[in-house]
Specification:
This protein has about 100 residues and is of the alpha+beta class. Helices cover about 35% and strands about 40% of the residues. The chain has one domain: 2-Layer Sandwich (TATA-Binding Protein), CATH 3.30.310. The two termini are about 15 Å apart.
């Protein structure tokens, strides 16, 4: 139970990564550019790189209050959500509540 609470705390308050650390990816040979924009108070980082199979990929990092809250990939026009902070928090809360309910049963 303590592990779940620690994971929930980390999921709530840990930045995971910052916009500044994304800039370091430009030092990697397969990264071509990184663009930032602010839309309705949300900082969005667009990173572009080439994958091992030669396809170009775009990764979009969404930051609110300096915390990464969503990461999505776009590869060959297929968009996938890789990370969603709110969904991860909900999963952990469900596990905590399930543990509490099982203990009280």
């Amino acid at each position: 139970m303590i592990d779940l609470i620690e994971k929930l705390y980390e999921e709530t308050y840990s930045p995971k990564l910052t916009p500044q650390t994304l800039l370091n990816n430009l030092n990697l040979p397969n990264y071509t550019k990184i663009n930032f924009e602010k839309v309705n108070g949300v900082l969005i980082a667009h990173t572009f790189c080439y994958l091992q199979d030669g396809l170009e990929a775009e990764y979009r990092y969404y930051f609110k209050d300096d915390l990464l809250y969503k990461l999505e990939s776009i590869i060959s026009e297929e968009r996938k959500i890789i990370y969603n902070r709110e969904l991860e928090k909900q999963k952990l809360l469900s596990l905590v509540n399930g543990y509490k309910n099982a203990k009280n049963a």
